[in-house]
Design a protein that fits this description.
Length: about 200
């Protein structure tokens, strides 16, 4: 099934305050924390994706790592369209965007679409930006937002889990979607997010 997907964050700009020389990319970009958060989001939204796609921008605001989430209308005729601008509008300002994730519907495509790849590619200028998606079978992949073609983006994929096979450690029953359990806090640099 060919699944269409639109991303409107191409116009997002982030102004980053100067970094301290001792701070590493690993800690500044919160790579492990982002991946754990994304796995939790897939555990919540993957099972709900029978005939929908869910999309989220991962962001850091006031030291809290969260996702601004939206969903498609029910998918019809091999088409799912997610208006990611809805997720962007629900994000607090200022926030540091760290990436995106999206589900594919259970009867959908296991591969990335050109819209998936183009959307992440348009955001490659955002420092620390990472892209994730899940297949209909629940496999979760990260891929390089620096890739512009579907075959090259597919070749850049790295598996990070499967929401159908592995329970996510730390997922609290009844935790609110988009917020980490226990409201985990992380250090944040002063940032601003502007849309034009």
């Amino acid at each position: 099934m060919n699944v269409a997907y639109r991303v409107f964050l191409a116009v997002v700009l982030i102004a980053v305050a100067p970094r301290s020389g001792a701070q590493s990319d690993e800690s500044e970009c919160l790579r492990k924390e982002v991946e754990a958060h994304v796995l939790e989001q897939f555990a919540i939204y993957g099972p709900k994706s029978a005939n929908l796609e869910y999309f989220g921008f991962v962001y850091l605001h006031d030291g809290v790592l969260a996702s601004a989430v939206t969903r498609s209308r029910p998918c019809h005729a091999a088409k799912c369209v997610v208006d990611s601008a809805e997720a962007l509008r629900s994000m607090p300002r200022p926030a540091k965007v760290l990436g995106e994730w999206h589900t594919h519907p259970h009867g959908g495509s296991p591969g990335l679409s050109k819209e998936d790849v183009r959307g992440a590619y348009n955001n490659r200028h955002i420092r620390c930006y990472r892209a994730f998606y899940s297949t209909p079978g629940g496999a979760i992949y990260a891929w390089s937002p620096n890739q512009m073609s579907v075959p090259v983006a597919m070749a850049s994929r790295a598996p990070v889990g499967n929401y159908k096979e592995t329970p996510v450690a730390g997922l609290v029953a009844g935790s609110s979607p988009g917020s980490p359990p226990g409201n985990a806090r992380y250090p944040v640099t002063t940032l601003s997010l502007a849309v034009r």
